[in-house]
């Protein structure tokens, strides 16, 4: 059970009904306090100096790494901090030693950040790119992968949960197929890690990326898990070296190898605190709470005549992302009305998933309500009532 009083940790919730957590979540006061503490009391660079502030900052930065590593059950040395999921995916795309004829398989469900890096590889390095087609509700069947994977498939890059339709992809089954064919699996956990328990050991993936700002952490923080850290780093420079001479350099091991330049220190410390906050609530409880609210919203929207809801039904394996349209209204107009008339914040448009929208025939996209642990039954009912009013469907 999620205690109702956590809402006091998110002061914005007294002003608005926030249903846009798939875009970015709110950060609770303890996360903000932890970041301020760094800024006020021990601000110094991490991993470099020896004075006491530098040592404290370095220790807190390392602690943050540890907390996030344990949160997804990764081993030491398997986790790197990035700016966001996008940077993590680009690190994999640019860091693997691609060869002519390599194939990459991804899907039409992907966020642009898990599509463009592969398209660029296709255009620049001639890899063969294949896209799996989802079912009408966004579901991706492992048999679709089985049908196209070959010995040449180097990598499969697939989302764990759709940021448009909310469906959870059975990535564990994808992992098995990949490994039977000698292919690597990258899982985009941007929408799963913040909402459901994720254990990289159980998933069996080779890479997992996620963004701190969607899991109560600060913007500018992200994570790349690598089962076998062997990628060429995206950046080289200060902080990532073992030895530099006038003639050349040797890179260091560990996460520092991949984190050249001064990192987002307060952000990392905030992310570590966010993970602690989520753990204290319990990821199973967060998942259950969001599922209950999702079912309530889906049931409510199903009773409104002019509304069409996309994605799996209430019984499907899904997260709290609900996409819908109101017949005759542009999704952006609906979002503006929800804001103006009911202080409800939702996302509208293509959600950085244009190919999926084209596939679904939704030229203007959808309205998307997305949940996090701080949402309540009152939020769910407020949304349904406001949509009913906008849809002008009082009779039903
Ligand atoms: C599924 C998915 N992948 C990747 C991203 C990109 O995340 P970021 O913008 O934090 O890099 C998002 C963001 O919405 C997403 O939902």
Give a description of the structure.
- The structure is a single chain.
- The protein has 12 helices and 15 strands.
- It has a 7-stranded mixed β-sheet with strand order 2-8-7-6-5-3-4, with helices on both faces. Strands 11-12-15-14 form a 4-stranded antiparallel β-sheet, covered by helices on one side.
- The protein starts with 16 loop residues before the first strand and ends in a 5-residue tail after the last helix.
- The model has no long low-confidence stretch (mean pLDDT 96).
- It is 37% helix and 16% strand.
- Helix 1 (29-41) packs antiparallel against helix 8 (265-281) and helix 10 (331-342) crosses helix 12.
- By secondary structure, the protein is α/β, with parallel strands linked by helices.
- It has helices at 29-41, 52-71, 85-95, 116-125, 142-148, 171-180, 200-203, 265-281, 283-302, 331-342, 354-360, 377-391, and strands spanning 17-18, 79-82, 103-107, 128-132, 153-159, 184-188, 207-211, 222-226, 241-244, 249-251, 307-310, 321-326, 344-345, 347-349, 366-370.
- Bound molecules: pyridoxal-5'-phosphate (PLP).
- Pyridoxal-5'-phosphate binds at residues 84-86, 111, 113-114, 159, 163, 188, 190-191, 211, 352.
